[in-house]
Amino acid sequence: MKVTVLCEDKIKITFDREELHRRGITYDSLSYGSALTRRVLKEALRRAEREVGFDWQGGRLFLEAYPQDEGGCVVLVTRLGEDEEERPVPRKNELRLFTFGSADDLLDALRAGALSAGMGELYLFEGRYLLLTRGEFPELLEFARQERPGRFLRERLREAGERVRV
Q: Does this model's pTM top 0.85?
């Protein structure tokens, strides 16, 4: 199990296939209604608290799980503020927006293989790199922030943004 801090209120927990197997669980069997899933997640959150200081108790959490190659999985844990609503789960073909804070973040994503040609439309707009995509790419969350795209964002980017080829 590997715990990575993505920002102050968000961590990524990566389980490889062997770790899931030892715990008697698979990505497909993850369900918060399952006592085994809850136990595994609480164990992971306690470890995250010890290793990186992520305070998960006393507030609401938003958890997202994604399968990994070779049978592992990634669980993204976001600590929600008191006035935040749970984010709706995006539909499979819903447009997603990833914002890279800097060119270095974009280059790091490229070097790590988290970003590659054909993943979507990449733009330079108002000093930031923005990726519009319809796929699910949880590995990008280590390098970019996922946001909800505005209603007319694609049109605005095509008019005023600079298209970047990867």
A: no
